[in-house]
From TrEMBL:
This is Receptor-like serine/threonine-protein kinase. Its main location: membrane. InterPro entries: Bulb-type_lectin_dom, Bulb-type_lectin_dom_sf, G-type_lectin_kinases/EP1-like, Kinase-like_dom_sf, Prot_kinase_dom, Protein_kinase_ATP_BS, Ser/Thr_kinase_AS, SRK-like_kinase. It comes from Nymphaea colorata (pocket water lily). Residues 503-778 form the Protein kinase domain.
Amino acid sequence: MAFLTSVFLLCCFSLLHVIVEGQAYQNISLGSSLSSLYNTNAWVSPSGEFSFGFSMVNGSLYVGIRYEKIPEKPLVWTANRDKPAPPGSTVVLNNNGVLVINDAKGVPFSTIGASSDGSVITSAAMLDTGNLVLQTSPEFAVKWQSFDSPTDTILPTQKLAVEKNLYASFSPTNLSTGRYYIVMQNDGNFVSYTDMREPTYASSITWGQKGNLVFDESGKISVFQWELNKTVEIIPGSVIPKPSTDFYFRAKIDYDGIFRLYSYPKRPSNSWPDKWNIVWATLDYACEVPAICGLNAYCVAQDEGFDCLCPKGFSYVDAANKLLGCKQDIPITDCKSYNPEHYSLETIDNMNFFGPHYAIKPSNEFECREWLLADCYSIVGTYWDSKCYKKRMPLRSGNMTSRCKVIVKVPRDNGSLLQPSLFEVGGPSITSNGMRKWSQSGVVRVVLFVISVSLFLLLIIETVVLICLKRWSLQRQEKPVCSVQPEMKLMRFSYKELEKATRGFKEKLGSGSFGSVYRGMMASAYGQKPIAVKRFDKLVEDGDKEFETEVSVIGRTHHKNLVQLIGFCDEGSHRLLVYEYMEQGSLSSVLLGSIRPEWNLRVQIAVGIARGLMYLHEECITPIIHCDIKPENVLVDCYLVPKISDFGLAKLLRHDQTKTKTDIRGTRGYVAPEWFRKMAITVKVDVYSYGLMLLEIICCRKNVELNRKDEPSVVLADWAYDCFVAHQLEMLVEHDEDAKNDMRKVKKMVMVALWCIQEDPSLRPTMKKVTQMLEGAVGVAIPPNPSSLISSTG
């Protein structure tokens, strides 16, 4: 009897039919394979409704799960959506229980699935639910399933767990990951986002309780809130076709970012034709999705779907894919020669761009148009509710809106922008008798040309004279003339260019309050050139202000002790700055490294930083307060030349200002006392921070070191003053023989630092005087105790 039972069980196992969760299916054994060369070669579910195998979509080869009985056999899950397989590829369930995609030569191209707990996979199966599973034997426990790794679609009986995303495809014919995704958040909200983590607000479904998204066999989609043991319907059963068993259902986030529930009749009829019907959607129109058409484009709803259009003066980035947005055909690059008469204004009625603006003015429409036309930097504006808005480029989220107008500046004549009309000369025409005849306009143009050339020559002569006079004047002046470069040209990079240059932001150099800095490589005339790319991660108001400030400040300055800004990226939500790369990193890493920098080098670094700050404070037409001077914000190049960086917290002053009021900025340990007393802030806050940093340069240590055993030396500033009063300055450079042999200079630098860190700002020297004291041009008096009470003159 036992023998017969064993034979019976062996026969059952050999048939490889299994009952799991009430479903019958046939196992796919180890070693089984599929080939892309045979379209009929697929692993089909027992009912024949789903299959796993190769599918060709718009010339690209994908491996996935599809509907088998629907004519077009649409995919519901894709293993390699971002990496189509090469022609002639195969899929093999190898002996390790992993599905491997091999190219035509048998070289592994990609893998699918694996046991999460290291269990041995013995077989696979394609279920009637559309779920592909990998399992063990003999208990046939599922160790991996496609339902746990959805792409853009979920099917009945499938659950979407917390923090699981559905990613839309890029377009109807491009299955790669697109710009939108929808996620079941851990706060209980089912929310659709763009790839920049911006909610597509109207498609958000908020329930406020943690739970899983559940798609049942009847077509209903609900959220099961496990903490309340309660089910809340997202898509009620009342909208589902009856009887629901006669339809296929799928819920999908489409390429336009809208989450839709579809039905397809299993037995088409006049009432239910053989096509996918929309049962329910988070939005009615794709144009309601923010940024659906990309930058500088606007969305127009149509009977079936939508279209993306470019304003006049713009053209598609890629005409074959309008979703990539538009680019300006002839950007205005030189505002010096800007002439409003060379431009006209085009109007788009009932349209708005919902992105940010940089200026607003109450006006009527005529005044609005004049205001926009007069501004060289204004390319597009909007007029709505008796207000005029100058839009910030690039334009974002263009959409049809009643009672609003978009006003676009376009060139009247493209040639006039490339060559000023002043230099256009008319030529002669030929009369009937063969004589040359000059037109009246030609004569006028010749006259204008002669006049312009004469003026140009006079301008050259005047410039030469002025240069000579200026050089002679400079020799007689003690104060240098400002070397600010207001028209310094910065390179504008695209986000993709910088992503490629940094290899996907792989090598992080450091991070700050608003973002991180990455190393990259950029092509130059001398080959590949290293760059530093600062990416602003926190896209909040203050971060945006810091970005704009840093670009405007660094882009208008030029000094050997200031870091050079090469360019920037301002694309969508991406804010990045591109700097020259500093090989030695920050001053902090140099001072606190394993090898102490030589004393003379530290002196040169201190003087270089002082010169850089003197330039910012006194040699610029617009004085600049850095507000965050510290060793981490001083970079060192390959020649160990210090360069001040990170102007993100800089406070600009007008030429007639000497102080300003602002919120506390800077880094703890380097902030001047007046920040906390709500006093007016002057350039002296940078002097204070420099003084603390100068002590760090002298001593090669941090200004506060809580782990020191000798308590008096914990705070460097207090210890330095005590050592100065006790005539024990050698303690500050205890292990530095070069500095000990130059105690006269050590004493002078300590005295300068003590003057800089006086609590009373009026007692602190200017950075010009600090530079002169360090260079020996002026003497250094005995400093008072820095922590003395504020004098009456403060």
